[in-house]
Amino acid sequence: MVAVLSCGCAAVETAEPPAHPPYTQQPIPSGAAVAPPPASTAAAPDCGDPTASLRPFPPGETPASPALDRIRERGRLVVGLDTSSNLFSFLDPATGTIEGFDVDIAREVARDLFGDPQRVDFRVVAAKDRVPALQAGTVDIVVETMTVTCERRAQIAFSTVYFEARQRVLAMRGSGVESAADLDGRRVCTVVDTTNLQHIQQVQPAATVVTVQNWADCLVVLQQRQVDAVTTDDSILAGLAVQDPNLEIVGPGFSYEPYGVGVNKADTDLVRHVNGTLERIRTDGTWQRIHERWLNVLGPPPPPPTPRYED
After folding, report:
1. Which residues form a coiled coil (predicted)?
2. Are residues 219 and 191 in the same domain?
3. Cβ atoms of residues 193 and 213 within 8 Å
4. pLDDT tens digits, 106-161
5. Same domain for 101 and 232?
6. Nearest-CA neighbor of 141 among 68, 56, 63?
């Protein structure tokens, strides 16, 4: 707006000072960025069934092997995970301990190695660092809502599937976002270097995708209205939704996300050991108890995923 002053001469226009904003904008989390378009449309590598893994050892057998002997000599199982995935792996503020569905899965692996589920050292590993951590040997296994894909199987080994999720959308109630289709021209958050980023760019290429380092950061930018929605697996979205009653999971699932335990490709006997643990907890009711403890927000526990083996 301008003001015109009459002074018996030529009109002089003076701009009014801009109004101060009613509040200071919150900074975005460190490492947040707008994702570039996909580099190419090349087809993903084909490895057959990526969820097929190595058969477990026969019950009661724990053979000597370089990988298992290394862990037994150390006396601890070193597990990579993420502490920002509420319900799966998070830091309990009341106890100061790491808890969740993935944590309990890792403890069952340690139980079968040592007879003690507490003999675990947890290392916080960002999503982008999961594969490098396994390749470098800084962790023995990664239990971190990690989807089994052919691309990842070219770099690391996986256990059989221990949880099945579907990618969906999380939005503010009443926002008008009811599915991925409504993200045309809007901003959506996901974590960098995840299958979720690939899928949302395929399903809704007209969305602006903001990538962050962890799921807690996605919750922050959604609450600060810096994005219109978050997209990831429904299991992870449930953990975000229980932290804020203004949020709701919307729309149908648009991708299949089978979770596997990541292992270094050279540690085949460790893969078999992990698969033995997963087979045990599927049959003795432990898997269902872990699901009821952490994921009752998703409803009654379904049957555990059926294992597939390649040998």
Report:
1. none
2. yes
3. no
4. 999 999 999 999 999 999 999 999 999 999 999 999 999 999 999 999 999 999 99
5. no
6. 68
